[in-house]
Amino acid sequence: MGRVFVAGSINMDVVATADRHPKVGETIAGREVLYFPGGKGANQAVAAARLGAKTTLIGRLGKDSFGAELRSFLGAQGVDIGSVREADTHSGTAIITVAASDNTIVVIPGSNALVSAEDVSDTPLAKGDVAVSQFEIPLPTIAAFFQRARSAGATTLLNPAPAQKMSSELLALVDILVLNETELGFLADVELTDSDEAAKIIDVARKLQARADQTICITLGKRGVLALAGSKEFAVPGRVVKAVDTTGAGDCFVGALASQLADGVPLRAALAFANAAASISVQRMGAGPSMPTAAEVAAVISAG
Fold first, then answer.
1. Residues 239, 241, 243, CA angle at the centre, nearest 5°?
2. Which of 146, 194, 239, 278 has the most CB atoms around its CB within 10 Å?
3. What is the pTM of this model?
4. What is the pLDDT of residues 130-148, one digit of tens each?
5. Sign of the C-alpha dihedral, residues 21, 26, 32, 38?
6. How far apart are CA 7 and CA 196, in angstroms?
7. Which of 81, 43, 35 is nearest to 61 (CA)?
8. Rg for the chain, CA atoms, rounded
9. d(CA 127, CA 39)
């Protein structure tokens, strides 16, 4: 079995719950405030580790109380944090408002902005491993990480979120791109919505492909997943559940997908597994703590 290496962000999520989102300039009463370990990198690493993959996280934490709490949490989830270094600033923080099943998020990068190419330079990647990253750390660091991964024969998996423009050179280093329809539209300069036909979404993905063998997976929430694997296209049906908190659902999907690919599972089956994992995570509060175990995902899949 291969390993999962995640280069990414680590945040403390400060979550405020309310009956509705305030309008601009308005103050409303909330229900409660909760503190959850989060950050896209940490979430994806926790998801992979809980699902049984040997997982290493590469990132930075501040020397503050959040940093100490996050380091303790990650270690308790079975994530190898030997490559999580300290930074002389505050730890990454996300301010999240949850109202019904919707959320708004403000992310303050803090120590995540200091994750450098040097931090990924000694990563012991090998053939069969999966290198995962997202857009909450500097893009040059991701490029250095993926260059090292490809030279080692590892698979590179990028979740380009929060969406921002990237160079064609970085895109060409990506073996598997996992994003939602909004992010796909942003990167391809085409406006897409979750109601667009699958054929239109796949056509946009095809135009974005940087290599003939590149795979692009578009997550569509309850509509499931569309995949363009080289020249082949297919869909994985969605799962309808009652969402409590969608924070971290995409990260759960990415971590679950990476865990399956590292175990040699074919893409279509890996996507179905990841879809089931994400459907479990949205039924729980928090990002990192909502990630399911392999047994939980297996039970959902066997139940249909």
1. 125
2. 278
3. 0.91
4. 999 999 999 999 999 999 9
5. positive
6. 32
7. 81
8. 18
9. 27
Rounded distance between C-alpha atoms, residue 57 and residue 72, angstroms: 13
- 55 by Cβ neighbours in 10 Å (0-12 / 13-18 / 19+) ranks as buried
pLDDT digits (tens, 9 = 90+) for 65-103: 999 999 999 999 999 999 999 999 999 998 989 897 788
Tens digit of each residue's pLDDT (9 = 90 or more) over 144-178: 999 999 999 999 999 999 999 999 999 999 999 99
- % of the chain at pLDDT higher than 90: 78
* Structural domains of the chain sorted by starting position, each given as residue range(s) with its CATH number in brackets: 4-23+30-302 (3.40.1190.20)
